[in-house]
């Protein structure tokens, strides 16, 4: 099974790029973030014509997540992260696809920091910790995938000294990520590329993509049931160079012989 995550930065504005990438890469399951579209504006028919079923959790102008599956049923399990009934931001969607639980997430940015947005990010992280722990207790194959808005280590950011006070790299945010992984999750991309400089996001400014001045903020976390089934993990770096593309590149993993 090939599973991908892609922050599309506007599903309708980037639809030609998304469809081109789907045709080229042909992932089996895709987690999308930053749809920036309400539910009724999701391009369901275009996605269907590309060969994918879809569920989505949209929001006007901001946020929004979706899960796509090629020739497979998607059984929705959860819409929204538990723990705060007043949180109306569309940032989490969970489904069962081919006996694997897929959690698609778009973690808050948190800037400017310090301030209310960082507090919301850390509170969201804490809710994610609790839910992830519960998912592990079920002892099922689980993949948490998406834009975590965290660079876990200095290897994951171009010129880390410039990011010390940014909400994507602050110590408490990195600790939250490491504590999450410490529950028993496997960071798939870093596991397959332990010492490589590998980025998933490149700003539109200052020729960041051309200079390879990026960040690794899009991640796959695998439950213990999938750790030994991970066969590949890559970034479709070239897609970031396409015209009218997202500032993120698609990231994908391959899992083989998934336990039933």
UniProtKB/TrEMBL annotation:
Residue positions of the active site: 106, 147, 248
Signal sequence residues: none
Site (Transition state stabilizer): 149
GO molecular function: DNA binding; double-stranded DNA 3'-5' DNA exonuclease activity; endonuclease activity; metal ion binding
A Pfam short name: Exo_endo_phos
Keywords of this entry: Hydrolase, Magnesium, Manganese, Metal-binding
Interaction with DNA substrate (site feature) positions: 248
Family: Belongs to the DNA repair enzymes AP/ExoA family.
Keyword Metal-binding listed: yes
Cofactor(s) this protein requires: Mn(2+); Mg(2+)
Domain of life: Bacteria
Gene giving rise to this polypeptide: xthA1
Lineage: Bacteria, Pseudomonadati, Bacteroidota, Sphingobacteriia, Sphingobacteriales
Positions with a binding annotation for Mg(2+): 7, 34, 147, 149, 247-248
InterPro entries, A to Z: AP_endonuc_1, AP_endonuclease_F1_BS, AP_endonuclease_F1_CS, Endo/exonu/phosph_ase_sf, Endo/exonuclease/phosphatase, ExoIII-like
GO terms (BP aspect): DNA repair
Co-factor remark: Probably binds two magnesium or manganese ions per subunit.
Domain Endonuclease/exonuclease/phosphatase: 4-248
Family matches, as Gene3D superfamilies: Endonuclease/exonuclease/phosphatase (3.60.10.10)
PANTHER family named in the record: EXODEOXYRIBONUCLEASE III
Keyword NADP on entry: no
Site (Important for catalytic activity): 218
The protein, known as: Exodeoxyribonuclease III
